[in-house]
Amino acid sequence: MDLILTLGLDALNFSLAIVLVAMGLVIIFGLMNVINMAHGELFLLGAFTLVVVQQAGGGFWLGLFLAPVVVGLVGLLLEELIIRHVYRRFLDTILATWGISIAIKQAVILGFGPASYTVDAPLQFGIDLFGATYPAYRLFIMGVAVLVILLTMFVFFRTRFGLAARGVIANRSMAACLGINTRRLDRATFAFGAALAGLAGAVMAPQMSVDPQMGLGFLIPAFLAILTGGGGLTGTLLGASLVGGIDSTFAKLWSPVLAQVVVFAMAILVIRIFPNGLLARRGR
Amino acid sequence: MSRPALVIAALIWLGFAILPALVDDWQLLQLAQFMTYGIFAMSLALIWGQAGLLCFGQAIFFGGGAYAMSLVTMGMIPFVPANTWLGLLAAMALPAIFANLLGRFLFYGKGLRGAHFGIVTLAIAVIAERLAINWEFIGGFNGLMNVPPLNITVIGEPIELIDGLPTYYGVLTLAILVFAILAAILSTPFGLALNALRNNEDRAAFLGYDNARLKLAIFTIAAAVAGLSGALFVAQFAFASPTLLGFGLSTEVLIWTALGGKSLLIAAFLGAVIVRTAENYLSELLGPSWLLGLGALFVFCVIFFPRGLMAELLLRLERALPGGRRRG
What we know:
The complex is a heterodimer of chains A (284) and B (328).
Chain A: H1 2-32, H2 39-55, H3 60-81, H4 90-112, E1 126-129, E2 132-135, H5 136-158, H6 160-170, H7 172-177, H8 182-204, H9 214-229, H10 232-253, H11 256-273
Antiparallel strand pairs in A: 1-2
Helix pairs in contact in A: 1-5, 1-8, 1-9, 1-10, 2-3, 2-4, 2-8, 2-9, 3-8, 5-6, 5-8, 9-10, 9-11, 10-11
Chain B: H1 3-18, H2 25-50, H3 59-73, H4 84-107, H5 114-133, E1 144-145, E2 150-151, E3 160-161, H6 164-186, H7 189-199, H8 201-206, H9 211-237, E4 239-240, H10 247-260, H11 265-286, H12 289-304, H13 309-320
Helix pairs in contact in B: 2-6, 2-9, 2-10, 2-11, 3-4, 3-9, 4-9, 7-9, 10-11, 11-13
């Protein structure tokens, strides 16, 4: 019983962590049709913002607050300098963001060295849940993920910005005709997506070794989750729970390597059979 | 290929042929190794530049070829004699078979396009590296050491390619051969159909081309070429490791090909050789900033010179020559 419970919580934890990373990707892809390969490195920057704040004597919570702000600004800069030049060339956006990811990773190595850092985590106690003890910090991560999902839903379905954004997703040129400043919207969207990646990086940092390679480990599961789910908010949630659930189960019962292989194989199979994802949106 | 393009290609290969007169033996060995990367880059340019398939895991086939070559020439496969020719054959056959099966799975039916194909191949490269690390038979994390050099004996005295000069010319010969064969393939109606597919998949299908079959054919050929380059590499480097299969090398070859120029085989080849040569000198000088600069240059190139720097140069040269085609 304990095993099933912790397994379920682990699966939920990993799934929500993937959602946290995938959310920014989905927003950027949905609105701007840009596949952001540098998302893993924005995640990395979020984690390193936390490292820097802690080294400077600031606490965890200050770092957690500053990470999305700093990474959001980086996103704004990247959009202005690079991304906007390649909007109309879909495959080139992949390459350009790919190049950005290499450059950011190397910049981090230059600044901090290739070694890994550890971050002091708050909330270091266990909480009794139905008889099993579970680390409080993991519950905190889940809470943040749920909050981010709710926040995103609020922004997209209850604000003027969200209305304009959904208009652009539905029909970009028509939205522009109706007087929506798509240029400004793109900039804001990319910065928002980047800020989410930064937040995810800072939240996840205490749970993993913070090193320059940490981005890729989350980027690929996030992509696979989006592709299997079919994009959109519900699709991403579904994809993330599939990827996260299967990975945690196999990692616990067999080995992490096998788990990764099974997850990737499963995802590739699903993508092959349902190229538009399990919850494909009809007609665009 | 147009006549000026042919002249330019011939001049470039001639340049490589007289290069040994200018550099020493150690540099020749280095160049021979970089030329294997050049052949590898040509394999990516073939599917990416000609057929529009952006493969983020081309190193799967390079590493596959490297491991096949190592296992055969080290005599680790039962009942198969340790022989360079057999090794090269296996290094081309194994990746080609794998690519064919994978292609059958990915291209037929609804099929994967564009970014989906890229991300799936990226995931496969990551899995391949993981599996190689955990597979003891092929050396696991440590890889296979002491892979013998190329031994091109046909009959009689054994001839091993160890020194700079013979290795250089051996690799160069194969590079020219690969280039000539691929250029010949591309000049057939099949090559033209690939370009049609690249420019507009739906239109090509409407005109009656079997897109999946075209993609499968070129994907298989490219995998064989990548496998060959991996085999040539490992015979010189004497060490096959899981990094040859994975994500890192797949990225690097993408950069070489994009910087050189994906639409011209020879530009991709030059891209790989030049970037690796520059890396040789500059990475010691600059340390980690070298890769930072390379990443920035790559981004710059994607934005402002999407055709690639070498290709841009060569295409302009081609247009300047008498009889040159005017391209868009």
